[in-house]
Structure formats: structure tokens, C-alpha cells
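Task: encode each sequence below as C-alpha cells.

Item 1
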Amino acid sequence: MSLAPGPADAPGTSRSTSATIQPNILRYLIVVADERGIDLRPLLEQVGLDETVMRSAALRVSYRQGSALIRRALELTGDQRLGLKVGAAQHLTAWGMLGFALSAADTLQHAIETGVKYQNLSGAMVVWSAGVSVRDDAFVLRAELPDPAIDPNLAGFLIEEAFASVVTLSRLAIRPAFAPRTVEFSFPPPRQIDVYGALFGCPVRFGAPANRLVIDSEWARARMPGRDPVTYASTLELLDAQAASRRDQQDLLEVLEVSVAQSLPVVPSFGEQARRHTTSERTLRRRLADCGTTYEALVEGVRRERVEQLLLRPELTLRDIAHRSGFSDERALRRAVRRWHGTSPVHLREQMLRRTRHAP
């Protein structure tokens, strides 16, 4: 179950531009940065968000928006263990209805399996899976990256935040003494290893074949203090309805994104899109509002992705890129890249090519 499949999903676009992820991680990222005296709010506009919108319960962000904000936060703070801190700052209440369902589950394992099942509603930016080990009956939770080609700093943040949040929320839900048997990371050991043991309270292994959090069966079978089968069942009905609605929303966004991407450098008008969907402009605008976005923001996301794809091709000039992305000229392209990334297209190209060369 992938939150953000890669660019092969459709010609010229990828689902990473679809605004379908709850911004729980970003909200806590802002809180943690605030505690360190770093204001990330100016960066929100660069990724098409703002503080008022971030307070909306209906807000959904794209994987691309979330990744961009996290990368900039890592650069500004200089803290390579920022993911651990963001994960450790979280509460079940941030997960809304899903958090309520987890609290009403029967056991910790049951709660985690529920979270995995409804991960697309949780704001997760990794792909979760879970199962019981046939060898020793331990409960194993795995986290994979939706795109294995992302840069190591972002990858480390996402995996560390994921495991830190699971351990933190388990302690809040069960007992403060909770600790996994082991935590395994696929990336090499960092300089600061002691912070991992202090947070997880168990042996931590680096350079492992996969990112895994192993929980002893005694902890996995621990009863949830707020367990209630009736409340749990009724909450799942609401979550199923949300999941069905989310699928419809994601389908709409992806169809529109593909339509825009295939039409570039010409951008179809909103009226034309409504006609293609045999609906009125008012209805289509309302459906996009239900998705937490607008047609203008969707077009912006597709053009941004196209620019970033083309910048990775050194043989293309800025004039070529501007034309193929639907900009009137190079100046319009420069203004857009400055708005998105806070830098020039030339500098961004250098950064992206350098990052590609250093990718594992």
C-alpha cells in the first residue's frame, strides 16, 4: 500500500504532486522548530501552504510539499536527528478519528495493525507493513520509503520520525515503560548513536537489510487501557467511509494532473476540464475544495514537477525548460523557481544534479 508511487504511474506526472496526505508530521515539525527558535512559517508559502491553511482539519498536502518543507527544515536547523524529535513530540489526538480507533483497539498489536491498514488516513510518509515472526512470535513493524531514490537526509528523517512516533504513542497508550526488543535501520550508523538508545530504550542496529521495529509478544499482546469493541467497530465504519472518499479524491486529482501534464506547454482551462468531466465548473471547484486544493494549485504542482524533471537534463537550456513547462519566458521560470525553492534555476539544477550523483 503506497502513499506516493513513483513517476512511472503516468506519463509526465507522478502521484507525489497529489494533495492526499494529512500534514501531521509538518504540524509537529513546525512545533519542534519553534522550540528551537526557528520559524518555518515563511517556508510554507514556498511550498504552496500558509499557517491559516495548516490549521484546517480538511487540509491535505502532497508528498512533494511535505518533502520540500522537511528538507528546508533540516538545512535550517542543521539537526540530522530532527526526525527523532518530531516523532517523539506526537500525540494520538493528532491522528483524529484514526487515533480514537487505535485507543479503542483490543491490544497494542491490534492497534498497530489498524494503523497499518488505514495508513493513508494517518499522514504517514512511509509505507508501513506488519506481521508476526514465525520464528519467535515477535511482532515486526516495517517501514519502507515510497521512493528509494530520495536523498539520504530526507530518508533518514522519514524513517526515524516513523519509528520514534510509534514508540512514543505506544508509551502514551500502554505504559511509559514500553520498549521494543530491537530497532533496525538500513542506513549507516550516524555520529550521534547514543540518542537512539536513549529514545528507544533497546538495542539499535544500523546497516540492517530493512527498517524494522521488533516488539516482544508480551508487549504486543498488552491490552489497550481504552479498549472498547463497540466504539472500535463504529469508528472503523467512519474510517472506511473516509478511505472510500479519499480514493475518489485521489482519483480526481490524478486524472486532472495527467490531463495537465499531457497538455503542457498548453494548460487546459478550468472550463475545459469541467467539460471533460461532464460536470459544471461550480461542481468541479467544490470537489477540488473537498480535496483541500484548487485547480490553480494543481497546475502549479504539475508545472513544478515538470521543471524539476527537465532541470535534470543538462542539455536543455532554461529557455527550453520554460517553453516545455508552459512559462511565457525565462523570467517567468526564474520567478516560479524562486517562489518554490528560494533560489535560481541554475543553482537548483546544480543541487539536484549533485544530489543525483551522490545517491546510493
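Item 2
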Amino acid sequence: MSPAEQRSTTQARVDSWTWAVRLFKTRSAAAEACRAGHVRVNGVTVKPAQQVKLGDEIRIRHAGLERIVIVERIIHKRVGPPVAATCLIDRSPPPPSKEVIASLPRRDRGAGRPTKRERRDTDRLMGRSD
């Protein structure tokens, strides 16, 4: 087996691997998340071509939530959900409860930017002080 073939079984591109294990719907979405700085490997923001190997920790910020996964198996092609689940260890924190989400202040869609008074009121409700 040539060194390139050995490397392909022990390493994969981060965008390709995250797409293959179904963390993203498309490979281009995975690459875009990497370019935007939403993907970190072992605590370092990475580009799409960054190689991942067994045991690497991948953190993904997606839709306001953080996914934390450990690379358990290297794959290059997209696989079914049962197989994809065996390729990673999910260490993500549980999503916030519906009560917590409902208690967060939200602006009506299309209401525009908050005024200074509205921002101060929101900060007071959230318990923030500057």
C-alpha cells in the first residue's frame, strides 16, 4: 500500500468527513461553515481542506447550537444514518428546554433594529449591566 493510500484511510478532509457522517446536508454547506469559522478541530478554526484523524474533536456551531463530536472512524463517502452514527462519538450538550427558549425575548420579524430604550430594557430583563 502506498503512503498516499495509507493516509487516505487514516485521514480525511474536515468538510468531506462532516458531510459523510451527516452533520451537514451538502459538502458545499460543510465547506462554507469551515470558511465562515464555524468549525473547529481540536480547538482551532480550520479551512475545509484541513485533515482530520481518529480521536480529533470537532466543534460545529450550527443554527445557534454547538455540536461536539469525536472522530471514531474515517470515511470519505456519505453513508446511511446507522453507519454514520458508528463513525463518531457525540459529546454535544443537550439542547435547551422549550421553557428556556420561550422565556428568551424575541423581536417580531420585520420590526427593525431595536431603539436604545428597547435595548436597555432587554438588557435589564436579561440581567446584564455595563
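Check on item 2: The domain at 3-95 is CATH 3.10.290.10 (Structural Genomics Hypothetical 15.5 Kd Protein In mrcA-pckA Intergenic Region; Chain A). The chain has six helices and seven strands.
End of task.
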